[in-house]
Amino acid sequence: MTDEQQATPGGGFTTTVAKAALAPIVASASAAATVYLMRKCAEVLRETVQPTIEEKGGGKAVASEALDGVRERLPDSVSEKLDGLASMVGPHEQAGGEDASAADRDRDEERRRREQRREQRRHALEQAGSRRSRP
Question: Domain ranges in the chain?
């Protein structure tokens, strides 16, 4: 065979087989890495970011504070335009305010309901599992 016949554009049979063999492995590895990163991001948000936001009075309070910080650094003509955006965010309620405490009570009640539903599902699964294991 000549050099021209051996130098195929796709790299030849060996390269094609290697790509076909490695494709599923690469796909699995990338999927596993994505799942790992998503779990880690959720964990970091839950453990680091969420407590900080709650300390500052919630999402609206953080957004309002961020807008105030940006407004201070901008010229007056631009900061007037931010006032419209700030009005959508609205004045933030402190954690001890009536609106915040009512929202907290609602949230806590919803959490209790979800936990009850989870417990019911666990119990039903355990019941179903014990029925199957009997001879």
Answer: 13-55, 57-92, 96-135
